[in-house]
Specification:
The chain is α+β, with helices and mostly antiparallel strands. It has 18 helices and 20 strands. The structure holds zinc ion.
């Protein structure tokens, strides 16, 4: 339905743009140098004493590379491009004669640990680098790794399930699918079919998806399985068999229904449980996997619900996992609590040479980088615009006509979005604009024509002959919405302003989180924005927005955007008490 545009260039400005710049300057450009063991562990794999690595250590290099390629679509940073190119060359040089691309000793290659999972990430990173630069060595390296997978598990009686850790190691099917579609080498598809058989004694994604079993009730509901579900899409793309598509979409809807948090984050103690209200950990890796799945869902179906989900995840769960300085990411970004750097919450993953590396620190940057895969997508008859923050986009229409889009706005802080369309030559195509489900009334104006209303939760389709300078003006509905909680969050609400979840933060209130006065929901319309903007533009710790909301006894609660809440180490809450027994709702 929709395609990502891996060759397009995006420039994000505004809040998200600052976070991209911080991520590049303070993480991507230093991570492999400050943590040289990211690659050195490959070099030491057969040295003594045998290094005591975490079973997933082989993933760090791949996750880093994936995030670097994504970031290059957002920044074109020359220094990052050079560093990533060197990183790829070093990684390829460390590949063993037999194609092995991991950090474990020779006798165990691919047969234990989460070694196939590590290869999955490295192969995906190499494929993306090849796609971005045309570097054929990266493709060859990826194929050599895939060939070793086939030699080990296809040309012998050994099955992938014998490697253990099935929800991790069987994700190799996703990378094999991408590689098969690129090379059409039958062995890779045959290997996928064998893994599909092994699923039946592991995650069983196809049969449970077809039967409509809720994802949290499937045999392997841990987050790593989400990357296995991406394998369903590959099988669908290769075979056209609608069963794979149905199984995938059923699982996606099930996770959204039962396990997506108010922050757009996913997981409860590293897996699906069927309860999005529990005060359990929301791991950054899990939210990243959920976003990857939502991008697939959007590509597959063109359903704007998936784009709404990506916006929610980006502005809240994902950016909430990143410290505004870009120097660290969390492991857990709770709905209520504090922000801790992953480098101390899961410090057990650190080793000499990799002090800052853990599953989440290398994975979190994908939350930002993947904006390049969904902000603007190509539809068969034009483009779909899903992201409305200030941005410029340069890409191509299906007929290769270069086209630029400029979005001038303060969104999501302000409701007005001005979109300028700049095709190199005038062309007829359909411009799809996502009208978020939360925007009850949205007005749209094309050039100087009269305003019209657009339907919430749909794409507005504008088909015409577009010419340079055409302009679309959108006004979204940012009135506050209250989402009532259930179970552990019963009697409380989450407040949203557009896509932004709002949160109490100790830093902006005189009372502590055990004494938050109940919100006066009937008076919610009286909430006022406290002017912060433009005051200290350079202060990264300043929230994007602060609102004063009316509460019990004429008190006021100051609420800030969730992604900024707790940035100073203060306590925050996104589930807020409300007056009266029935929480009521203005959703
Ligand atoms: Zn993690």
């Amino acid at each position: 339905m929709f395609d990502a545009l891996p060759q397009a260039q995006f420039r994000l400005e505004g809040m998200a743009g600052k976070r991209v710049a911080a991520n590049t300057a303070n993480w991507l450009l230093s991570a492999p140098i400050a943590n040289p063991g990211m690659l050195e562990m490959f070099r030491l794999r057969d040295r003594k004493p045998v290094p005591k690595l975490v079973p997933w250590a082989g993933e760090f290099a791949g996750k880093y590379l994936i995030s670097a390629v994504q970031a290059l679509r957002l920044t074109s940073d020359a220094e990052l491009k050079k560093l990533a190119g060197q990183f790829v060359n070093d990684l390829i040089a460390l590949q063993a004669e037999d194609g092995y691309l991991g950090p474990f000793p020779k006798e165990t290659r691919l047969k234990g640990n989460w070694d196939l999972w590590g290869h999955y990430h490295c192969m995906q990173g190499l494929l993306m680098w090849h796609e971005a630069t045309g570097d054929t060595n990266a493709l060859k390296s990826c194929q050599r790794a895939a060939d070793l997978v086939c030699t080990t598990f296809l040309d012998s009686n050994l099955r992938v399930r014998a490697a253990g850790s099935p929800e991790m190691n069987m994700t190799i099917i996703h990378a094999l699918g991408r590689l098969y579609r690129l090379t059409r080498l039958p062995r890779y598809f045959r290997m996928m079919q064998e893994i599909e058989k092994d699923w039946e004694s592991a995650g069983d994604y196809l049969r449970t998806g077809l039967a409509g079993v809720e994802f949290f009730k499937t045999p392997k509901p841990r987050w790593e399985s989400l990357h296995g579900l991406q394998g369903l899409i590959e099988l669908y793309r290769i075979t056209g068999d609608a069963r794979y598509r149905t199984a995938f979409t059923n699982h996606w809807w099930s996770i959204r229904r039962w396990d997506r948090r108010n922050t757009g984050g996913f997981s409860s103690g590293e897996q699906a449980t069927g309860n999005p209200y529990a005060p359990t950990a929301i791991e950054t890796c899990c939210t990243i996997a959920w976003m990857a799945l939502s991008i697939d869902m959007l590509q597959l179906t063109g359903d704007p619900v998936a784009a709404d989900e990506l916006e929610l995840s980006l502005f809240n769960g994902a950016l909430g996992a990143q410290h505004p300085t870009g120097r660290w990411w969390t492991y857990n970004t709770p709905m209520d609590g504090v922000r801790e750097a992953s480098a101390h919450t899961i410090v057990f993953q650190a080793r000499a040479g990799t002090p800052e590396l853990n599953c989440c620190s290398v994975n979190g940057p994908r939350g930002l980088g993947s904006v390049s895969e969904w902000a603007v997508m190509r539809a068969p008859d034009g483009l779909a615009v899903n992201y409305f923050g200030p941005m410029s986009f340069q890409g191509k229409l299906r007929d290769h006509t270069p086209i630029a889009l400029q979005i001038e706005t303060d969104y999501p802080l302000s409701k007005r979005v001005e979109l300028r369309v700049e095709p190199l030559a005038s062309r007829e195509f359909t411009l799809r604009l996502r009208i978020p489900a939360w925007s009850k009334t949205t007005t749209v104006r094309l050039n100087r024509s009269a305003s019209t209303n657009a339907v919430a939760g749909r794409y507005l389709e504008l088909n015409r002959r577009w010419k340079a300078g055409d302009r679309v003006t959108l006004d979204f509905d940012l009135q506050l919405r209250a989402l009532p909680g259930e179970r552990e969050a019963a009697g409380k609400v989450s407040l949203y302003r557009g896509p932004l979840l709002l949160a109490y933060d100790q830093k902006w209130n005189d009372f502590d989180d055990d004494a938050i006065p109940a919100l006066d929901l009937p008076k919610l319309a009286e909430a006022r924005e406290v002017s912060l903007r433009k005051k200290e533009e350079k202060d990264l710790l300043l929230p994007w927005i602060i609102l004063e909301a009316p509460a019990q006894g004429g008190q006021v609660i100051r609420l800030c955007d969730f992604a900024s809440a707790g940035a100073a180490g203060t306590r925050y809450r996104s589930w807020l008490p409300v007056m009266g027994a029935s929480a009521g709702q203005t959703r």
